[in-house]
User: What shape does this take?
Amino acid sequence: MKPPISYEEFAKLDLRVATITAAREHPNADKLLLLRIDVDGAGAGAERQIVAGIRGHYDPAALVGTQVIVLNNLEEALIRGEESSGMLLAAGDGDAVVLLRPDRPCTPGARVK
Assistant: This one.
């Protein structure tokens, strides 16, 4: 287990429901996918890209339309030459990767509390 954090530290995390609008393989990495996500329901103009280490676990075409949970306020990073503006939440279950998702459809941008 990692060291405990305070509630104030946890409250800094902005966890949101996002809808994957496009997914493709990262051109320079065998384990990464590039995902376009809608986090506020505003459509194409408000979409962002995140880089996720789920290639080989999920078919990119099957992810389109799927809702997932993302860390919305993670500092932007350049990962293998591609911009990533957030982090997809997933669980490692042995060799498998399992996406964290709402159990029913939600409005994109809904807060995870």
User: Anything to note?
Assistant: The helical segments are 7-11, 60-63. Strands lie at 15-25, 33-38, 48-52, 67-71, 77-79, 82-84, 87-88, 90-93, 96-99.
